Amino acid sequence: MPLISRLMIKLSLLYLLTGISLGALMLINKAWLISPLLWFVLPIHIEFLIFGWIIQFTLGVAYWILPRFLETKGRGNKILAWFMVVFLNGGILLAAFSGYGLGRSFTLTGRIFEVLAVALFISLHWKRVVTYNRG
Amino acid sequence: MPLITRLFIKSGLIFFLIALLIGVSSQAEVLNFDGITPLFWHALMVGWITQIIMGVSMWMFPGRVKEESFQNQKWGWLTFGFLNVGLGLRLIAEPFVNTSDTELWNILLVISALFQFIAVAAYVIEIWPRVMSKRQRRKKRKDGV
User: Fold this and answer.
1) What is the pLDDT of residue B141?
2) Helix crossing, B3-27 with B74-97: angle to 10°?
3) Domain boundary assignment for chain A
4) CA A134 centroid distance within chain
5) Whole-prediction pTM value?
6) How many other CB atoms are there within 10 angstroms of residue B6's CB atom?
7) Domain for residue B115, yes or no?
8) Which of A19, B55, B122, B132 could connect to A48 by a Cys-Cys bridge, CB 3.0–4.6 Å?
9) Domain span at B98
10) How much is the pLDDT for B145?
């Protein structure tokens, strides 16, 4: 498993743990009110679990498991792959925390970062979605 | 495909169906109730998508012990049990939390939250060491671990 996939998968596991912890607290809060302020973590819960966990995990696994290029045996431009990881995680953190007084421009930047990450993912993987069967 | 993965996938498929049925009932006035939307999303995202990811990764990721037993797959089994019971309890208890004064529903909801957290913690314990490079995998095999 390449370093980029390992990093993305481990980050996704950390997002999963954080996201589920916040979710569990909110669920307990629904049954036994701890503090009404706990509801303010809902955007972080959603962002961490959808983008941080599910999307990041699947992208990380796809980077590892899709067929590599036949001639180079590689997975394409590594610098672009690093940018993909940085944009995705920067985007997740900006989008998750922008609602706490950072302003809408941070949300917008976060979403643009996520779009850039996905665009990079597509450009890196488009030609790896192939079959090497000749029949 | 190991038994635990088959159970994760089949259980995921059932939650997929349940999620869609909840979605249908949210559109019917007779079956709709306050707080149905979170149930729909959690049945879909936890019951279906997360469960499929967990089941398939336990099968596909390197470092799997081929010999199937509870001892060899204990974290996987704990994940499966706590996740499904936890989410099931949520689906049963949450509709009553806002409408009933019975404390039992609140207790069940708290248990559901704790169970789902334990399930995720068990999954991370299982899968974290299996996120490894080829070199690490070879070394692990050579060391006989």
Assistant:
1) 83
2) 10
3) 3-127
4) 35
5) 0.94
6) 12
7) yes
8) A19
9) 3-61+71-126
10) 60
Contacting residues of B for A20, CB less than 8 Å apart: 116-117, 120
Inform me whether the C-beta atom of residue B70 falls under 8 Å from chain A C-beta atoms: no
pLDDT(B144) > 80: no
CB-closest option in A6, A17, A50 to B120: A17
Residue contact A31–B128, C-beta within 8 A: no
Residue B72's alpha-carbon distances to B16, B58, B65, B123, in angstroms, are: 29, 12, 7, 14
Q: Report the gap between the CA of A126 and the closest CA in chain B (Å).
A: 22
Q: Would B23 be classed as within a structural domain?
A: yes
Asked if pLDDT for residue A135 goes beyond 70, the answer is no
Number of structural domains in chain B: 1
> What is the complex's ipTM, to 2 decimals?
0.94
CB-based contacts of A48, cutoff 8 Å, min separation 6:
A15, A16, A18, A19, A22, A92, A96
Residue of A10, A27, A54 lying closest to B131 (CB–CB):
A10
Instruction: Note the pLDDT tens digit of each residue in B1-45.
Output: 999 999 999 999 999 999 999 999 999 988 888 889 999 999 999
Residue B14 resides in a domain: yes
* B96-118 residue pLDDT tens: 998 899 999 999 999 999 999 99
- Give the type of residue at B57: S
